[in-house]
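Worked Example 4.2. Consider the chain below.
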Amino acid sequence: MISMKRQTKGEFAFEIINGILMLAICFITLYPIWYVVVNAFNDANDAMRGGIYWWPREFSLESFKAVFNSKGIMTAMGVTVAKTVLGVLVHVLFTSMVAYAFSREELYGRKLYMIIGTITMFFGGGLIPTYLLIRNLHLLDNFMVYIIPAAFSFFDLIIFMSFFREIPAGLEEAAKIDGANDFKIFLRVIIPVSMPVVATIALFHGVYQWNDYFTGMIYINNPNLQPIQTFLYRVVAQSSSNQMISAMPTGVSKNITSQSLKLATMIVTTAPIVVVYPFLQKYFVKGFMIGSIKG
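Applying the procedure from the previous section yields the following structure tokens:
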């Protein structure tokens, strides 16, 4: 009885320590984000005095007005939205179709394809050969450079294939009895019951497309085709915020600084992907296969 009480006290102490550590980790992780938000919503000139840690001292939206009044930023935002939506659709459709074929035991040469694909996960041609390939494909300064090279991922194929193998064979057999071919089975049977993995891969690739700045930096010279993350990279790395401020309409740029503009741009570029997360999170914890077939 005494040992049980001691063990209970020990477990209670462990839970307290564990809770404190979790709170500390959450604080360390979230406070930098909160600091950026607080300073972005504070008056830029007042923020230069420092001392703002928990709440805006002088609330202001001038930095955000400057962001949305900048033609370059809004053009880059439009490019980012377009490449994210189209890129996710192409990537999910193409990768899932290949994965469905790989999940079939009757696919001729499947083991050889798996070996070749696995090698590509660990070894690549490098930046210069990739650039030469993109140039020979006439994808430089082309919007499709965001879509075609990222249309397929062997790592995502493995995730799709693992999920497809768990689908009961009875579903496909029933569809074949009804006269459906492989393409109809894939679209009308496999994809509807695979929404958890589809949503997961879509979210992962959507985050990649949204945050990708490297592609626009290397392959795009046309400012009208650069995504928002490349625009933000150039703002932060090349201090082009001062040029943006000077280009603002009269009366808009008086109460902003290069630092406030950077912070506001960070929030504008990060907010959309943060908003999407809660709507797709439910697909990570439940599946549609439960009760889909009896037998």
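Residues 2-40 form the longest helix (39 residues). The CA atoms of residues 170 and 222 lie 52 Å apart. Compare this with Example 4.1 before moving on.
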